[in-house]
Amino acid sequence: MAKYIFVTGGVVSSLGKGITAASLGSLLRLRGLSVANMKMDPYINVDPGTMDPFQHGEVFVTADGAETDLDLGHYERFTGVKMSRSNNFTTGCIYESVIRKERAGQYLGQTVQVIPHITDEIKAFIKVVAKGCDIIVVEVGGTVGDIESLPFLEAIRQMSLEGRAHDFFFVHLTLVPMLSIGEMKTKPTQHSVRQLREIGIQLHALVTRSAKPVPEDQRKKMALFCNLPQDSVISAYDVDSIYHVPLVLHDQGLDDLICRHMQLSMNPPDLSSWNNILQRMSNNSRQVVSLVLVGKYVDCHESYTSLREALVHAGLHTGCHVAISYADSEDLESGSGDDLALADAILVPGGFGSRGIEGKILAIKYARERKIPFLGICLGMQLTLVEYARNVCNLKGAHSVEFSSSTPYPITRILNNEDVIGEEPKIGGTMRLGEQIIILRQNSMIARAYGSREILERHRHRYVVEETSLAVLEKAGMLVSGHSPEGICEVVELTTHPWFVACQFHPEFTSSPFSGHPVFMNFIRAAQEFSSFKQGKLNREECYVPQDC
Fold first, then answer.
1. Pick the catalytic residue: 172, 313, 506, 517?
2. Cys staple from 146: which of 110, 142, 185, 457, with CB 3.0 to 4.6 Å?
3. φ/ψ (deg, to 5) at 240
4. Is 378 part of the annotated catalytic residue set?
């Protein structure tokens, strides 16, 4: 039978429950246990696929095509375990499932209620993922006191009563604020824990978020008022990198505490992989490369979480520090945006909607004409072809039909999807999603990067490149270097440019801090060479070119 760790949060949101849950998953896996991670989100949306990135941040896509919370990306990156649609569910999922059962007559004669029907469904969803693993780490979204989270908290309370006490471990993450006079305040944490105890949940560990390590006297005070031993109060203070968090938690004995409570006799974790990452990060002699990410959600950096981390990983594995700056594509349109002249590399990511599109096209044109290493992802690839059609092929008015249905030169077309184009269109969950096969052109730049002719990568898009327009662009020098078995254009590149690649898929979703990702590592190597070229240290002929595969 699986054992359960539940991670809840209090005081304020976005403290790092996801990083804490991911760190625990990693530490326990490094002890030799099979571990699953799960996230329960309290909103009524069935998934975050239709939510504004400014509100929710990034939508992480799993291999099996689920649009999920960004914390699942942290789980994958920290543990190396692929997540699936079962690893994330929402209040909307639960109610949808219960209502479907009610309509099918499974509750005949019963009044369907939050307790027991909704809480039973929550427990059933958790137990499905728990099958076959030693421990499941379940993150409860939101904060204690939110009305939306109450069914989740009630469900996990019930679970702890239905099983053996040592099979359940409750971790609560709270904020310990510091006043301007330097005094840490524990009262918000005390109130948050009191709310949990009123619900019927007694903690086993308290993880406190603070700018600095919490002094022993404050830990002692919180332990007393929260009904905990002092060694169960863990100080999760600010560190330079999220990849330092597993070591912070381990150094304070959180994983030891879990193993003792759960009666697990396991060897200490082998932390060499984490130490190796931190050693690379601490190398102050690393070359600095300046990368400009041109997006439309730049005021919310969480919209690009996986991209940011993939670039960090690439820097770690190419021996450099990637300094990321965010340029608002709308500002580029008006001429008030950051100057791209200092960029060693330019990245145009995906996105939805017409806002800021012309600014992205301007950035692509800038990178192409000035031979700056460039990577376009998803919408970034489609706009790469729009820019090339307009400015190289002289097809004035060329555009994606997503933004201009009357364009004389349509560069994209909508996928043949009845859910999208029917009389009563559905939007959520109707895109081309998840892991797809991509066949790469032999000895193309992208094939040399991967060292392979066939790859699997994750997708999230509704529009694809229009084949007739693509043929015109190919005649003008645009190389199609990757396609799906069905013939969908997946990768384009320019052979007349040191490093100019655009892909329909999202390579950031499969990047790992332990190994990086071939697309991003090649991209950053090109940026290193371009930086050295600008400084007069290299000739163009010496710039990086991947070896033949």
1. 506
2. 142
3. -70, -30
4. yes
Q: What's the half-sphere exposure (Cβ side, CA atoms, 13 Å) at 483?
A: 13
* Orientation angle between helical segments 379-391 and 357-369, nearest 10 degrees: 70
Query: In the Cβ-directed half-sphere of 523, how many Cα atoms lie within 13 Å?
Result: 31
**Cα dihedral 484, 487, 490, 494 sign:** positive
Q: Which helix (H) or strand (E) holds 409?
A: none
Measuring CA to CA, which residue among 249, 230, 310 is closest to residue 20? 249
Going from the C-alpha of 203 to that of each of 173, 188, 261, the distances in angstroms are: 10, 16, 12
Q: Work out whether strand 374-377 and strand 500-503 pair parallel, antiparallel, or are unpaired.
A: parallel
For residue 268, is the peptide bond before it cis, meaning its omega torsion is within 30 degrees of 0? Answer: no
Residues of the chain with pLDDT > 70: what percent?
A: 95
The DSSP line for 61-106 is E-TT--EE-THHHHHHHHH-PPP-GGGEEEHHHHHHHHHHHHHTTT
How far is the CA of 371 from the CAs of 498, 533, 548, in angstroms?
Answer: 7, 11, 22
Q: Does 320 qualify as catalytic in the annotation?
A: no
- Residue 59 is predicted with a pLDDT of 94
The β-bridge partners of 483 are: 439, 489
Catalytic residue chosen out of the listed positions 508, 517, 529, 543: 508
Are residues 21 and 470 in contact, defined by beta-carbon separation less than 8 angstroms? no
Q: What are the structure tokens assigned to 437, written together?
A: 């096969």
| 465 within 8 A of 478, measured Cβ to Cβ | no
Half-sphere exposure of 145 (CA within 13 A, CB side): 14
pLDDT score of 417: 67
Residues 129 and 107: their CA atoms lie apart, in Å, by 24
The residues of the chain scoring below 50 in pLDDT are: 544-549
- What is the C-alpha to C-alpha distance for residues 94 and 26, in angstroms, rounded to an integer? 28
pLDDT given at position 338: 65
Active-site residue identified among 378, 393, 503, 543: 378
Q: Which residues pair with 399 in a beta bridge?
A: 410
Average pLDDT of every residue of the chain: 92
Q: What pTM value is reported for the model?
A: 0.92
Report residue 312 as tokens.
């960090």
pLDDT at 544: 47
User: For every residue of 420-448, which 3-state class applies, written as one string?
Assistant: HHCCCCCCCCCCEEEEEEEEECCCCHHHH
Q: Is 508 a catalytic residue?
A: yes
Give the strand pairing for 478-483 and 432-440: antiparallel
**Alpha carbons 486 and 55: distance in angstroms, whole number:** 35
What is the C-alpha to C-alpha distance for residues 381 and 357, in angstroms, rounded to an integer?
12
Q: Given this model, what pLDDT does residue 510 score?
A: 97
For residue 150, CA distances in Å to 34, 115, 116, 249 come to 29, 11, 13, 28
* pLDDT for the residue 257: 97
What residues does 60 pair with on adjacent strands?
Answer: 68
